Amino acid sequence: MLVKGRQAETFARRPGDEFWAVLAFSEDEGLASDAAQSVLSAWRGKGELEVTVLDDDAVRKDPSLLFDALEAVSLLGDKRAIRVRTSGDKIAALLIEAIEAGDARPGRYAARLIIETGSLASKSKLRAAAEKSARTACLQLFEEEAADIGERVRAALMAEGAVIEEDSLMIFY
């Protein structure tokens, strides 16, 4: 399932329970990382979430590392997630295999999967696998306009009970 732009940001804050995996991508890798963090926070809820971070080099060096991490069950019963930071192509075949296996057999993995990457072409095999998956969300994020950044700063400060002078806010525009 492909979700774009603002809807992708909203989805990242409240991913449905039916999704075990999320692919977040953007030309601005910081946006993909922020979305991944939002998804992890939502999956954490009020409890604990053990997060294992993997990258291209670690998975290419030992391909079983990804599947071992997905299948490992927490001894304390804590929720688990695997966060994979990738360039998109180096380990795409393994990530596609994981997505397809998780889609074919719900509950196959003990952990959830979040994949974050930079820009992905519409012809990307990884993107195509996530888009056609019923249980993986594919989030395409776009760079923000200056006004959006300013409003985001204002909203974040207000959520913490703080206010900002309009003159001070201008540095974000």
How would you describe this structure to a colleague?
It is built from eight helices and six strands; from the N terminus they run βαβαβααβαβαβαα. Helix 5 links the parallel strand 4 (79-85) and strand 5 (112-117). It is an alpha/beta fold and 173 residues long. It has a six-stranded parallel β-sheet, sandwiched between helices. The protein has helices at residues 5-13, 29-44, 56-61, 64-71, 92-104, 125-132, 146-159, 166-169; strands spanning 2-4, 21-26, 49-55, 79-85, 112-117, 136-141. The two termini are 33 Å apart. The protein has two domains: 2-142, P-loop containing nucleotide triphosphate hydrolases (Rossmann fold); 144-173, no CATH class.
Shape: globular
The CATH superfamily of the largest domain is P-loop containing nucleotide triphosphate hydrolases
Quick one: CATH class of the largest domain?
Alpha Beta
The low-confidence runs, each spanning 5 or more residues with pLDDT under 50, are none
Q: What is the number of helices?
A: 8
- CATH fold description of the largest domain: Rossmann fold
Give the beta-strand count: 6
Computed CA radius of gyration, to the nearest angstrom: 17 Å
Q: Indicate the percent of residues in helices.
A: 40-55%
- Kindly name the structural category: alpha/beta
Q: How far from one another are the termini? A: 33 Å
Instruction: Average the pLDDT over all residues and give the rounded result.
Output: 87
Largest sheet entry: 6 strands, parallel
Strand order of the largest sheet: 1-6-2-5-4-3
H/E topology pattern: EHEHEHHEHEHEHH
Beta-strand content: 15-25%
Q: Please, how many domains? A: 2
- CATH-scheme architecture of the largest domain: 3-Layer(aba) Sandwich
